[in-house]
Amino acid sequence: MYAQLVETGVKHVKALEEMSPEERHFQEKIDAEIKIEAKNWMPEAYRQTLIRQISQHAHSEIVGMLPEGNWVTRAPSLKRKLQLMAKIQDEAGHGLYLYSAMETLGADRDDEIAKLHSGKAKYSSIFNYPTLSWADMGAVGWLVDGAAIVNQVVLQRTSYGPYARAMVRICKEESFHQRQGYEILLTMMRQGTQAQRDMVQDAINRLWWPALMMFGPSDEHSPNSAQSMAWKIKRQTNDELRQRFIDQTVPQLELLGCTAPDPHLKWNAERGHYDFGDIQWDEFYEVIKGNGPCNQERVATRRQAIEGGAWVREAAVAYARKQQNKNAA
Ligand code: FAQ
């Protein structure tokens, strides 16, 4: 697959003979599955690719708290509310590990967050869709965390050590999120009223395609994949991961007694995979350009949170300074 990507020439990937001795040594380490650590030499483009991907990933975790935060005050029971709050807090933790991993590459957290707030930085397209009913809390956990796991399990083997290690704990927590989401949906389907079952199907209808878009553009239109695969930042391509997600999700969909909004979704015995219909890539590109249903609202909420919390940070710094002066006296 990697060779195929190089052939499509999406972005030029240097062959060994085009590399400087330092670059060749670096690539040999990668090929030998030796992790790259923060203080090791690395090509500047490798560093920048990681800062781009890890910061986008961190922003996704933080912005991803917002669609679920929308339902904390309206959870149907105390138990559901506690579960949802625990999940949202986990996502905040994931953002913090990832910002820390990004800082090991020399990036400045405040600068990267400022890019998010000015609308310059990307974060996962999925979080620009609204969460309209309680069933969306189940569908987000099942489909969105489910898609995130498929992508992140592979990232546990990414070539940059701090990113790979952050992924180990994140994956454990995401599996809990995925199961709690699925359990919400199963409960609604098996113990709920017809109106609740309809709500589940409606949530799946709205979130199915956006969940498939989380894996990014198809391989032939993915400018970063060839180089990221060569550097083993990515271990599998966008399309390979998307197919894996579909293959493992359809049996769960059937167990729920629901359907996907895709008339072309069908098991293909010859390929050993599900076939599926065309993804609306125009919609994906509009969303990542900032024109999705909730982009403006999400960025505005983040900006408000950072501005509203400024006094807390200022007070903490003033208090630390006061303690320092006291200790010095
Ligand atoms: N949304 O060349 P590629 C979660 C951009 S975590 C927005 O294929 P790459 C947990 C891409 O950045 C979800 N933008 O790029 C949770 C690039 O733009 P650039 C986040 C997208 O990096 C659950 C351009 O398109 N997970 O959900 C998207 O090689 C519930 C070209 O694409 C991660 O970030 C998209 N879906 O592959 C939290 C995982 N797809 O920067 C709360 C780590 C692509 O060149 C609640 N990231 N783009 O201008 C990755 O694995 C990769 O970055 C990909 C994209 C696979 C997302």
Describe this structure in words.
The protein is built from 14 helices and two strands; from the N terminus they run αααααααααααββααα. The protein has helices at 2-8, 21-31, 44-63, 65-69, 78-103, 109-117, 135-155, 161-191, 194-213, 225-230, 238-256, 281-291, 295-308, 310-328; strands spanning 266-268, 273-275. It has 329 residues and is mostly helical. It has a two-stranded antiparallel ribbon with strand order 1-2. The termini are far apart. It is globular. Mean pLDDT is 95; it is low at 1-9. Helix content is 67%, strand content 2%. A hairpin with a 4-residue loop joins strand 1 (266-268) and strand 2. Bound molecules: Phenylacetyl coenzyme A. Residues 52-53, 56-57, 60-61, 64, 91, 122, 124-125, 140, 144-145, 148, 151, 213-217, 222-225, 228, 234, 238, 288 line the site of Phenylacetyl coenzyme A. Phenylacetyl coenzyme A (FAQ) is lined by residues 52-53, 56-57, 60-61, 64, 91, 122, 124-125, 140, 144-145, 148, 151, 213-217, 222-225, 228, 234, 238, 288.
In short:
The chain has helices at 2-8, 21-31, 44-63, 65-69, 78-103, 109-117, 135-155, 161-191, 194-213, 225-230, 238-256, 281-291, 295-308, 310-328; strands at 266-268, 273-275.
